[in-house]
Design brief:
alpha+beta, DHBP synthase, two-stranded antiparallel sheet, 10 strands, globular
């Protein structure tokens, strides 16, 4: 399915669970931007060799920035921030989030589509209701009725959510809601909507090795195999694309930390 109407995650859940299809696939930019994918797929299928293996669609198609480019931006903001290189950004990010910090996470190639899928994300602890409250009031500046999504390790998702196997390829794009299993909502209150559903993103090592590793580290610390994941932006602005975008948004909000490539960034407060 494609087209702007397919950005309706609740409708997608209904179609998947109650519709006449065994499988449903929705690509991550299910809006006008999706026409570019259609054009590319048309050319691909025209020129592919017969019998050639199909590949899993990976949504990380945007620009990336090496450490030299990141450092140039960090130096530009030296009067406002302090930063240091870290050996394991995934382990550090998981540790900070597990303590209740809200962290900007900027890695690799930007996601294609309107959802942050672990490369231009803001991460928080799903176990803490205050995570959602702080995000609404201090960082995202948005209405409190809007839910936040869980990014969950694919192999543990069934313990927390009713995952329909026919939509498994699309759950990775945060574009289908799923019912939360009985008895677990109180463990992850920050990512459960008022109707008992969540806009799940399944994460596996094939699609995003760094984000997968961060969630694995968080799981090792907390026993919860997911993090709260929302787009790295504030209300009315697009998702950050460049290191400069990330630094500006970091400084304009009450984000606790920014992990950008292999660097930990903090604000200078004194």
């Amino acid at each position: 399915m494609a087209g702007g109407v397919v950005l309706n995650c609740k409708a997608n859940q209904k179609i998947l669970e109650e519709g006449p299809f065994d499988e449903v696939f929705i690509q991550p930019a299910a809006n006008d931007a999706g026409t570019s994918l259609g054009a590319a797929l048309y050319v691909y299928h025209e020129h592919r060799e017969r019998g050639e293996e199909d590949h899993c669609f990976v949504p990380y198609l945007g620009p990336s920035f090496n450490d030299v480019k990141v450092l140039n931006v960090l130096e530009k903001y030296r009067g406002y921030i302090k930063y240091k290189r870290v050996s394991d950004p995934c382990a550090l990010g998981a540790e900070l989030v597990s303590r209740g910090s809200i962290v900007g996470w900027f890695q690799g190639r930007m996601e294609w589509g309107p959802r942050a899928l672990g490369n231009r994300s803001i991460l928080a602890d799903p176990r803490r209701t205050e995570s959602r409250i702080r995000l609404d009031k201090e960082i995202k500046f948005r209405e409190p009725f809007r839910p936040y999504a869980p990014s969950v390790l694919e192999e543990y998702a069934g313990e927390f959510f009713y995952i329909h196997q026919g939509g498994r390829r699309s759950y990775g794009f945060m574009i289908i809601t799923a019912k939360v299993r009985e008895g677990v909502a109180n463990k992850i209150p920050a990512v459960v909507h008022v109707d008992g559903t969540a806009r799940v993103q399944l994460v596996n090592e094939r699609s995003n090795v760094l984000f997968y590793k961060l969630i694995r580290e968080f799981y090792g610390i907390t026993g919860i195999p997911m993090v709260l994941n929302t787009s790295f932006n504030i209300k009315g602005e697009p998702i950050v694309c460049s290191p400069e975008d990330a630094l500006r948004t970091f400084l304009r909000t009450k984000l606790d930390y920014l992990i950008i490539s292999n660097f930990l960034v903090e604000k200078i407060t004194s």
